[in-house]
Amino acid sequence: MERKIALITGATSGIGKATAIALAQIGYHIIATGRRKERLDSLKEELPEGIDFLPLCFDVRDKEAVHSAISGLPENWKSIDVLVNNAGNAHGLDPIQSGSLEDWDAMMDINVKGLLYVSHEVMPIMIARKSGIIVNVGSIAGKEVYPNGNVYCGSKHAVDAITNGMRMDLNPYGIKVIGVHPGLVKTEFSIVRFKGDAERSDKVYQGFEPLLPEDIADTIAFAVSRPKHVVLADIVMLPTAQASATIVNKNL
Ligand code: NDP
Ligand code: 8X3
Fold it and tell me: Is the pTM of this model over 0.80?
């Protein structure tokens, strides 16, 4: 069988980790990235036998580190077939007038510029091969805005726009570009957003059944395994209890 390679950013946790496992289960060899090295290393244990694994530890905000990690890939890892741009988080949930510059920098630098830096390295590889699939993990926050979501929503609207632009510009090269936009998924997302406040974070997912990271991962695995002539361009995925960014039915 042809050797297939997937690179997943933010694979130390949540959606990225589940996606690395799901893609390994359908035969992809896995390049997993993130900043927490021990978590990256331990992911190997969760992949099926026979799947090769390459952990790459870098901060997506550091464009030199992104460049040297991806341009320095060993020869047998260079032909990336699937890129999943997943690394990202919300930082804070505050009215715009009291938001922090550090939080704003983090969200724009990681969610938007980090996605661009990684894509900048991988797109030429796919263009040269006239083949490849890029999955960008956006959010319902990239389709709608909610109170206090301001800059996070802005970063995810940017991801949505960039995804649509990528699809147009990469179309002549046969590269598929897929936007996946989840609603509420129970991961470490809210722990990060609320800076380690577990009680506040737990409340986000109480009283209804949220999505699990595996739900998103299954959908990504399904989307990347469609026939060559089919692209699932734009996928919005919500828990059944969620009707919009702000409407969650806690009585189901
Ligand atoms: P987690 O907090 O569980 O995972 C976030 C991942 O991003 C981690 O692996 C983390 O790795 C990585 N990451 C964060 N900052 C950086 C950085 N500077 N450099 C490299 N990697 C980084 O959250 P989720 O799994 O929920 O989030 C994944 C994506 O899904 C994000 O883009 C998020 O916006 C999006 N999303 C999440 C939803 C949810 O409700 N959970 C809903 C909609 C979209 P490490 O810290 O090791 O670097
Ligand atoms: C994560 C989902 O609703 O917190 O993107 O923005 S939400």
Answer: yes
